[in-house]
Amino acid sequence: MEHGNAAAADRDLIVPRLVAEPWYVDRITIDAHRFAAAGWSMPVTADEPAGGWFTVNGKRFDRLAYPLLRSDVGAVFWQRERSSQCGFDGEIDELSEPYRDGVLELRRVIDDTPAIERGRDAWFLPDPARHPNLPDDDRRFRVIGDRDARGFLVSGATDYHRIDRVLVNLTGRHLHAFDRVLDWGVGCGRLARHFPLAHAHAFVGCDIDRDNVDWCAANLPGTFVASRIAPPLPFERETFDVVYGISVFTHLREPMQRRWLDELARITRPGAILLMTTHGETAIDFARLAPVDYRNTRDRLAREGFVVSGTNSQLDGHAEHGGEYVNVHHSAGYVRRIWGRHFDVLHVLPGYILHHDLVVMRRP
Ligand SMILES: C[S@@+](CC[C@H](N)C(=O)[O-])C[C@H]1O[C@@H](n2cnc3c(N)ncnc32)[C@H](O)[C@@H]1O
Questions:
Q1: Model pTM?
Q2: pLDDT over 50 (residue 1)
Q3: Is the pLDDT of residue 251 over 90?
Q4: C-alpha distances out from residue 360 to 53, 89, 271, Å
Q5: Mean pLDDT on 145-169
Q6: Domain 129-362 CATH (choose: 3.40.50.150, 3.40.640.10, 2.40.50.140, 3.40.50.720)
Q7: Taking the domains of the chain in order of start, what are their residue ranges?
Q8: Ligand 1 centre from 328 Cα, in Å?
Q9: Spatial separation of the C-alpha atoms in residues 308 and 327, rounded to whole Å
């Protein structure tokens, strides 16, 4: 498959590394103290670091097979050289305390990842015993397009801690250490459930999906409010120190996006940090496009900066959106130019939240 696709591709589309090298954990098992994990991570050409290619809570694997053939991954990332040589499968015989502070950290070691992007090299598995009350399949499906319960926990913890890493890098403070935090588009609390209970007074979530908001209010610590597809939000001006929005701007048409940029500026304090994901160039790498479509999609995004790529029916019947909830792409250049009129755009971190880029901004 990979060879067929690559042969059909124009050679100039093939690159030695992607801007944000993807990786993924397919399986983690913890049986007594025995730990095993399998997944894939783009192959590297350097020698194995002294501490190993991968670590679990800082400990290297006792046995690790890497790189293994993963033709399925190679077929997706045909534009990346040797991408099918990316599988890993490892075991640790004795991992005595897997969930320190309620979460296990699986890292890959890539020496040249910039400090602000290091969160991308970590996946987090929360202690399932601390999460007995998950939202049902339909609620989860509406926010992540997937019904897998383990994926909901792992992706939520991973996104949460990756955001936390950016904040620590930027400000020296954890997310929970800020006075007022807003999860804009909280859904059914995929990230919100990882905000520490002891700081729940600082946390607010809002969403246009009232059923999911009600579920959060009944099941999670914090304050949860229903909001509307268009501004304003029911908050005073300069209320929040941090606002994050995971996969919200990926769904709003351009005029609505502009109104929300104004509204987010209104409700944040000077110096506040905003963390918003977009579907940018990385999302195109993940899109399983044939070479001709891949080239055309990239060229179009580079030319237009903002592209509506399709409709989205996931919220139909659950939130009034009047056709405003669609799928969109932003180029990093567009974000710096247009969003930069509202905020200081500090970073656009490619592939930081899996196939989403993370836009890190400061309210002037
Ligand atoms: C793809 S889901 C992501 C949910 C959540 N952020 C997460 O990552 O699990 C997008 C969410 O944004 C919400 N949403 C869409 N437009 C919104 C708006 N204008 N204000 C607040 N929430 C909105 C949707 O209802 C939905 O829950």
A1: 0.95
A2: no
A3: yes
A4: 29, 34, 12
A5: 95
A6: 3.40.50.150
A7: 2-110, 129-362
A8: 14
A9: 6
